[in-house]
Amino acid sequence: MAKCTDIDDREDESSCGHICINSPGSYVCACNSGYELNEDESTCDVNYLKTLWDRISMSVKLCLLVTNSVKYSWVI
């Protein structure tokens, strides 16, 4: 849990699930890649669709890389 402290001397503290971005008089919580900020604007949950899409995308890229580097020959 990242600790986030407001810097405008109000001694207001809040906890961000992943990343805390301080600014004068305020702060914003953010999430690591593959996660999304919940409605409470403090905690994060896994973004399953993004994680799945990233995995599919990586598989397609690997498949294209292998396919493009192999020379095909057919014997008829």
UniProtKB/TrEMBL annotation:
Coiled coil residues, start to end: none
Keywords, sorted A to Z: Disulfide bond, EGF-like domain, Repeat
GO molecular function terms noted in the UniProt entry: calcium ion binding
Tagged with keyword Methyltransferase: no
Pfam family name, one: FXa_inhibition
Entry annotated with the keyword Ribonucleoprotein: no
Record protein name field: EGF-like domain-containing protein
UniProt source species: Bugula neritina (Brown bryozoan)
Domain (EGF-like): residue spans on this chain: 29-44
Lineage, opening ranks: Eukaryota, Metazoa, Spiralia, Lophotrochozoa, Bryozoa
